[in-house]
């Protein structure tokens, strides 16, 4: 099934369900259309003479992938889309050579997801009950998940429209992040970085990676798209940590723009939901393979043989 068909079929199905609100943004809804406008601001410098076949295989923080396109952190509403939806999503991502990233609540079948063989990351929110954070970290590590993520941007919980969603959260201090770093034995990723200040703090706290994201428009209104702050962040961290970018990436051309700005990996959220709703495991697989195929094709035509070859100057800003 082609990407356009998957997106249309999956979104149409979800919009008929009670959990359709998960597709919406916080309060005024400013962020989601703004994401698209920012992505559309950039066109490509074509370099087609001597173009070769591109490779999109990559590695990050000890994980080898067939594509730089990975799943953004989601748990809900996957179980509502399909019975055993989390396992179907894991298998689809594994088939595509990608990585699965769960959010909160931590899936009850986290061990089963790990046993599918898909590379995995799992997130923890900054719960006001700090013991709950450490319990969640221990649960994630005990299940064998490769990366632990902390949602530093959810200090005031999350919200969709006017409705609070995740509650019982409180902002983390720098000292607490250092304590979490000591608790996590593997790679630690801080999600929700949108400024060079927070990026430097993440680096100083010992994080191995960051996710540059406006949290899918589910935290506070009027946040920028990640591409608006990526130059400052990339300059600040100076190649010392893995950078993942997400929010509004829908086609291979979008993925290439994220990589051109200096990201190592690009996360997709709603497209995974659309794929699952449209065709289950195969739909998730086809979304990642479709995006990856588009990316590989465009890379060849802009003179990039592998993801690390994609440079900022391949983009023309309108």
What's this entry about, in short?
The protein has a single domain, classed as TIM Barrel, CATH 3.20.20.
Task: Provide structural commentary.
The structure is a single chain. Strand 10, helix 8 (196-205) and strand 11 (209-212) form a beta-alpha-beta unit. The chain is globular. The strands form four sheets. The chain has an eight-stranded parallel beta sheet. Strands 1-14 form a two-stranded antiparallel ribbon. A two-stranded antiparallel sheet has the order 2-3. The chain has one domain (3-159, 167-317): Aldolase class I (TIM Barrel), CATH 3.20.20. It has helices at residues 3-14, 31-39, 78-81, 85-95, 110-115, 130-143, 174-183, 196-205, 230-237, 252-260, 270-301; strands spanning 42-44, 58-60, 63-65, 69-71, 100-102, 120-124, 147-151, 159-160, 163-164, 188-193, 209-212, 242-246, 265-268, 315-317. The model has no long low-confidence stretch (mean pLDDT 97). The protein contains eleven helices and 14 strands. Helix 1 runs antiparallel to helix 11 (270-301), helix 8 (196-205) runs parallel beside helix 9 and helix 10 crosses helix 11. The protein is α/β, with parallel strands linked by helices and 318 residues long. The longest helix has 32 residues, at 270-301.
* Global morphology: globular
Count of spatially separate domains: 1
Distance between the termini: 33 Å
CATH class: Alpha Beta
CATH topological fold name: TIM Barrel
Strands of the biggest beta sheet: in what spatial order? 4-13-12-11-10-7-6-5
Radius of gyration: 18 Å
Classify the oligomer: single chain
CATH architecture: Alpha-Beta Barrel
Write down how many β-strands occur, each being a DSSP E stretch of 2 or more residues.
14
């Amino acid at each position: 099934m082609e990407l356009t068909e998957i997106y249309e079929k999956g979104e149409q199905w979800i919009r008929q369900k009670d959990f359709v609100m998960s597709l919406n943004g916080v309060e005024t809804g400013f962020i989601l259309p703004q994401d698209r406008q920012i992505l559309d601001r950039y066109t490509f410098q074509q370099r087609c003479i001597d173009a070769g076949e591109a490779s999109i295989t990559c590695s990050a923080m000890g994980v080898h992938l067939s594509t730089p396109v990975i799943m953004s952190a989601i748990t809900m509403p996957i179980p509502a889309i399909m019975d055993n939806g989390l396992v179907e999503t894991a298998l689809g991502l594994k088939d595509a050579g990608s990585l699965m990233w769960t959010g909160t609540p931590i899936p009850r079948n986290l061990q089963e997801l790990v046993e599918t063989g898909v590379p995995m990351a799992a997130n923890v929110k900054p719960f006001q009950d700090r013991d709950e954070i450490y319990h969640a970290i221990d649960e994630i590590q005990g299940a064998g998940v490769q990366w632990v993520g902390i949602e530093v941007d959810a200090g005031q919980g999350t919200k969709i429209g006017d409705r609070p969603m995740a509650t019982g959260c409180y902002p983390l201090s720098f000292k607490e992040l250092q304590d979490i770093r000591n608790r996590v034995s593997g790679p630690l990723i801080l999600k929700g970085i949108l400024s060079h200040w927070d990026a430097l703090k993440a680096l100083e706290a010992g994080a191995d990676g960051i996710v540059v994201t406006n949290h899918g428009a589910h935290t506070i209104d009027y946040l920028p798209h990640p591409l608006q702050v990526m130059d400052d962040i990339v300059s600040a961290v100076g190649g010392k940590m893995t950078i993942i970018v997400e929010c509004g990436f829908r086609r291979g051309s979008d993925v290439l723009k994220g990589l051109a700005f200096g990201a190592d990996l690009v996360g997709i959220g709603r497209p995974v939901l659309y794929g699952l709703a449209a065709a289950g495991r195969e739909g998730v697989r086809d979304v990642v393979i479709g995006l990856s195929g588009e990316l590989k094709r465009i890379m060849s035509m802009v003179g990039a043989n592998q993801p690390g070859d994609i440079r900022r100057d391949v983009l023309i800003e309108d």
